[in-house]
Q: What sequence folds into this?
């Protein structure tokens, strides 16, 4: 029991097996259709989205507000251990979300229309652009600046401080954008 639940990889694998069983029980008759595979890609997209935005909210709701309350000698536990690990899953979850989101739009046959706000796909188009801005923020602003702030790459004390501030502003910007982004993601299927 402990051996199983103590191992994240085994637990994740069991989660996938359970999902496949659910799919077989509920949707066996649809497995040969394009619509089913477009749905599977969308499901994987949302899974990556949860991992990404979950970690964004962890940074903004938990880690950033807690840092000033942590004694200086304990700060390296966050800066050297937890934050680099969280940032690894954070940036690759962002990449996975973008990849499977674009694939979803492609499989739904409206990628170009959505990105150009045409053909009744303006809602998801706005959501996709908001999320693309957020992903660019992750890869081109937050991650390079966090590398300096956390000492993964060399930087002097002033540069570290400036980098931490830039990363914080970009992270807070993403938190702001995430609410309208998610509105658009969920609205397309429901209110158009
Ligand atoms: C650049 C990044 C993204 C792209 C290209 C993208 C694209 C898409 C597309 C095309 C859909 C299907 C819309 C439809 O026709 O109903 C969708 C749905 C969705 N996306 Fe995204 N998305 C992105 C980021 C995100 C993020 C960050 C989240 C956060 C969790 C997210 C969550 C969702 C959800 C919950 C749905 C609704 C699924 C449903 O109603 O069935 N997406 N996305």
A:
């Amino acid at each position: 029991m402990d051996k199983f639940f103590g191992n994240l990889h085994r637990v994740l694998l069991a989660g996938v097996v359970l999902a496949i069983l659910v799919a077989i029980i509920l949707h066996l008759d649809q497995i040969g259709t394009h619509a089913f595979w477009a749905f599977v890609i969308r499901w994987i997209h949302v899974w990556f989205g949860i991992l990404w935005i979950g970690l964004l909210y962890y940074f903004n709701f938990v880690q950033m507000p807690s840092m000033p309350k942590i004694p200086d000698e304990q700060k390296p536990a966050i800066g050297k251990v937890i934050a680099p690990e969280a940032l690894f899953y954070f940036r690759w979850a962002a990449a996975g979300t973008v990849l499977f989101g674009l694939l979803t739009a492609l499989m739904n046959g409206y990628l170009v229309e959505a990105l150009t706000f045409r053909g009744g796909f303006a809602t998801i188009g706005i959501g996709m652009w908001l999320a693309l801005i957020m992903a660019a923020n992750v890869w081109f602003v937050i991650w390079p600046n966090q590398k300096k702030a956390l000492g993964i790459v060399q930087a002097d004390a002033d540069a570290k401080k400036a980098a931490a501030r830039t990363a914080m502003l970009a992270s807070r910007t993403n938190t702001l954008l995430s609410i309208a982004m998610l509105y658009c993601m969920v609205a397309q299927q429901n209110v158009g």
Notes: The radius of gyration is 19 Å. The helical segments are 2-5, 8-27, 34-66, 75-107, 111-115, 122-149, 157-190. Residues 42, 45-46, 49-50, 52-53, 97-98, 101-102, 104-105, 108, 124, 128, 131-132, 135, 182, 185-186, 188-189 surround protoporphyrin IX containing FE (CB under 6 Å). The CA atoms of residues 3 and 10 lie 9 Å apart.
